[in-house]
Design goal:
With 556 residues, the chain is an alpha+beta fold. Helices cover 34% and strands 23% of the residues. It contains 15 helices and 22 strands. It has helices spanning 25-42, 54-70, 101-112, 143-149, 158-168, 175-196, 223-236, 310-313, 345-353, 373-381, 394-406, 411-419, 433-440, 444-460, 536-552, and strands at residues 2-9, 12-21, 86-97, 117-120, 137-138, 201-202, 215-217, 240-242, 246-252, 258-265, 268-279, 299-300, 321-322, 327-337, 340-343, 357-359, 387-393, 428-431, 481-493, 496-497, 505-507, 513-519. α3 (101-112) crosses α6 (175-196) and α5 (158-168) crosses α6.
Length: 556
């Protein structure tokens, strides 16, 4: 929902102001800023919608048009000029395809090494899949982490991070790529922190999959802060960003070697000739035709623009792809529309730290709530309806609520879910234990028994059912209970192209490095295996982008 107002004076549009909205802030802020600039410049609501946010921005334009017409206001709009189609030729030392975290870090690294760099992004905004994530990342081996964690940082090492990654993905990772990630993330964090003036701090949530405290994040906890600051620094230091620029074809020399690409912009065809290219175009989670059957019953919460475009425009390069049926599935999802979820990771982790329990529709606990995410993800997937519920008291709800609002939910949105009284997803209900259970469709009698037994475990400081650590056993306080739906959801694809672990050069189907072509981020699979730990996709994006940008800069 978006509420905005249009200020009109003397048949001129003076301003367009947002009162409130429930869209993803990182996308909305960028898209609306561009849209507003176009409206004011053209003095019209008949302007182009923003690529990648077409539905949202078109809805704003249509609503504004209707509101103004209803009020009988005549806008003295400038005539819409016919824009001739142009062909533009550009050259660069390094060209980067994709404006998410990995692409931006690669571009910044190449720029810092004295190269002329052009970055193209198909959407009208930056961020890719990263824009939906938090900014949490591992700082292993960095000076940044030494400052943050002090003596504790000495407990960590690239080898320890490598061991944690390997264990948590059941050793399905490609060790050479994992080595590249764990060996380079420290240098990469130090580089991008200095380049873009990023002020990392200890992450508010240190998840149990990591054997030591190593997770760091930006003060806002938002990836939007990362994207905004890195992009600003890149452009301020001479880098060029082209938004609304979709790669469609490749440029090659007479030997078939890649020399650049052809991209379509608004009213333009852009030929980008480059000495080297970094492919950081993201995953394919929104492309249902590319997804395997095992993902189709799990809610998607990633960007609808993650459509695997490179598998089309890179087809002539015969790149090696692998494990395209790997997805990062998390347990913390609210199904906000059919098949689409929003994540509650931070809030859910906080709730379980405060004693909340996971139950199924039979009212029975299903897991050690303080175990690693993969354990209760699998517990949720084992339920016949693949739904579980967090049961908490009002004390815990307040902390849960604050983190929902911090991470992509609005107060109005949350209240609208409660207003449904459990009639449809997402289920958020409250009341006495019996009333809340009935609204959520849970067996109230069995849930009462479960809660009574659990409170006995709290008093005994021992959980005989699931051996939950006593520090997370807490009494339920008061008579009001909150029950919150939890579903499995995914945004990230973990398979992808194969890259060489020495320099991130992409390989062809014969496992030979493709000249002058490097990969970074989600488009390259394997470093985290079939199941990445929390913070590890950001870790891979930053580390692989740093290496790819360095390698691409060495091409003569």
């Amino acid at each position: 929902m978006i509420t905005f107002e249009v200020d009109v004076a003397g048949n001129q549009i003076d301003d367009v102001k947002v009162i409130k909205h429930s869209e993803t802030p990182g996308i909305f802020n960028q898209a609306f800023g561009k849209l507003k600039a176009s409206i004011l410049k053209q003095q019209s609501f008949s302007v182009d919608a923003i690529s990648g946010a077409t539905v949202m921005t078109k809805a704003i334009l249509d609503s504004a048009q209707t509101a103004v017409a209803t009020d009988g206001v005549q806008i003295a709009a400038k005539p819409k000029a016919e824009v001739p189609h142009k062909v533009i030729d550009l050259t660069a030392d390094v060209a980067v395809i994709g404006g998410g975290e990995a692409g931006l870090v690669a571009a910044c690294r190449a720029l810092s090494l004295g190269k002329k760099v052009i970055l193209v992004e198909k959407n009208g905004y930056l961020g890719g899949a990263t824009i939906l994530n938090g900014s949490n990342v591992t700082g292993t081996g960095s000076k940044v982490s030494q400052t943050i964690f002090g003596a504790k940082a000495k407990q960590d090492s690239p080898q320890r991070l490598f061991d944690d990654v390997s264990r948590e993905c059941a050793y399905t990772n490609y060790p050479e790529l994992t080595d590249l990630m764990t060996d380079n993330i420290g240098r990469a964090i130090d580089f991008i922190s200095q380049f873009a003036s990023l002020d990392y701090q200890a992450a508010q949530t240190q998840t149990p999959e990591h054997s030591v405290e190593r997770q760091i994040e930006l003060p806002s906890a938002s990836s939007y802060e990362l994207i905004k600051k890195v992009a600003h620094a890149f452009e301020a230091k001479g880098g060029q960003i082209l938004l609304d620029t979709r790669v469609e074809n490749l440029l090659k020399d007479d030997k078939g070697q890649l020399t650049g690409f052809v991209a379509a912009g608004q009213h333009t065809t852009i030929n980008v000739k480059a000495t080297s290219v970094v492919l950081a175009s993201g995953g394919y989670g929104a492309n249902t035709a590319m997804r395997s059957d095992k993902s189709k019953q799990i809610d998607y919460y990633g960007p609808m623009t993650s459509t695997g475009d490179s598998y089309q425009f890179m087809k002539s390069m015969d790149l090696k792809a692998h494990d395209l049926d790997w997805y990062k599935v998390y347990p913390h999802g609210l199904e906000v529309e059919p098949g689409i979820a929003k994540l509650t990771t931070y809030a859910s982790k906080k709730a379980t730290d405060m004693g909340a329990i996971y139950v199924n529709k039979n009212g029975k606990r299903i897991v050690n709530e303080s175990d690693v995410y993969v354990t209760f993800r699998d517990a949720i997937l084992k339920q016949p309806d693949q739904i579980a519920f967090l049961v908490m008291d009002a004390r815990t709800w307040r902390a849960f609520y604050n983190l929902l609002v911090l991470h992509d939910f609005t107060a109005e949105e949350i209240q609208s879910y409660f207003n449904n009284n459990g009639a449809k997803s997402p289920i958020l209900v409250k009341g006495t234990l019996k009333r809340a259970a009935e609204l959520a469709g849970i067996d109230a009698e069995k849930l009462a028994t479960t809660v009574k037994n659990y409170e006995g475990y709290v008093q005994a400081k021992k959980d005989p059912e699931f051996d939950r650590d006593a520090q997370y056993l807490h009494d339920f306080e008061g008579d009001t209970y909150y029950i919150i739906e939890q579903r499995a959801r995914f945004a990230t694809t973990l398979g992808g192209y194969m890259a060489q672990a020495t320099d991130m050069a992409l390989e062809d189907s014969h496992e030979r490095p493709v000249a002058h072509l490097y990969g970074a981020g989600e488009v390259v699979g394997g470093a985290n295996g079939h199941d990445s730990m929390p913070s590890m996709m950001n870790t891979w994006g930053i580390a692989s982008g740093y290496v790819a940008g360095s390698s691409a800069s060495q091409v003569k």
